[in-house]
Design brief:
By secondary structure, the chain is an alpha+beta fold. It folds into 2 domains: 1-138, no CATH class; 142-271, Histidine kinase-like ATPase, C-terminal domain (Heat Shock Protein 90), CATH 3.30.565. The protein has helices at residues 2-19, 27-105, 110-137, 148-157, 179-198, 234-245; strands at residues 165-171, 204-211, 215-222, 249-254, 260-267.
Length: 271
């Protein structure tokens, strides 16, 4: 901008003598002729400066947004690490104690030793199943190149074989969503499925994605025992914050017909 202002000053200085031609024109005529050019140049420079400032602020905002996303991912990973430690770590601790008991009982109380071994085998199977659930939960958003409802369907299908019947359906005409909105929906389904497997003692989980005129709604419900209260956990609270940043919300609680339900509602642009 400094270079542009200098060039404008040079052009005005060079144009001023020409404004005195032909002979007979006075200084007032020359100044009157150059005033519109000066205002036009100043206007152009002002617009260019405003555009550059807006671009700079946009780049700063994008950098802050990227940083917020990185922090959100780090926070989510920390939460999942704590959950994995609490669940799988508990199983491994009990298995270790059982095998130590079996080692002590093997000579004097062999029947008790075999009971400890059988319990350790059962807990090992449960720990392996828990590890598989976490592997499923950590899979990326675009599963095998799928996005939108296809990614959600594949996520629901990835929980087959867990002992819980999982179903998923789409209602309305599907529209392309913003990547941030897709991520919130994906994590909402993931949270609902994981909670149903780990806490609800559910036999069925159903997800329904509905496209309305100006919003998209994802409801994940199970037929489990519901929540005993205590407010939403970290995962649901984090999802609600992400949804609110997009103009939506995530709600969770006991369903009217029993079980637990997670509902994400996000605005979409009308086509």
């Amino acid at each position: 901008m400094r270079v542009a202002a200098t060039v404008l000053g040079i052009v005005l200085a060079a144009t001023f003598p020409l404004a005195l031609v032909p002979p007979g024109r006075g200084w007032g005529d020359a100044v009157a002729q150059l005033v519109p050019i000066t205002f036009l140049g100043a206007f152009v420079l002002g617009m260019a400066s405003a555009v550059l400032e807006a671009r700079r602020r946009r780049e700063e905002a994008q950098g802050l947004l990227d940083r917020v996303r990185e922090l959100a991912v780090a926070e989510e990973r920390a939460r999942m690490a704590r959950d994995m430690h609490d669940s799988i770590g508990h199983h491994l601790t009990v298995i270790k104690m059982g095998l130590e008991n079996a080692e002590r009982f093997r000579d004097l109380r062999p029947s008790d030793a075999w009971d400890e071994v059988r319990q350790a085998k059962q807990l090992t199977a449960e720990a392996m199943a828990e590890a598989r659930r976490w592997v499923r939960a950590l899979r990326p958003l675009a599963l095998d190149g799928h996005i939108g409802s296809a990614a959600l369907e594949r996520l629901a299908g990835s929980f087959d074989g867990t002992g819980v019947q999982v179903s998923f359906e789409v209602e309305g005409t599907e529209r392309r969503l913003d990547p941030d909105a897709e991520l919130v929906l994906y994590r909402t389904l993931q949270e609902g499925l994981t909670n149903a497997l780990r806490h609800a003692c559910a036999s069925r989980v159903h997800g329904r994605l509905t496209f309305d005129r100006d919003k998209v709604v994802l409801v994940v419900g199970d037929d489990g025992r519901g929540s005993a209260g205590g407010g939403p956990g970290f995962g649901l609270a984090s999802l609600d914050e992400r949804a609110k940043a997009l103009g939506g919300a995530v709600h969770a609680g006991n369903a009217a017909g029993g079980g637990f339900e997670v509902r994400a509602e996000l605005p979409v642009a009308r086509s």
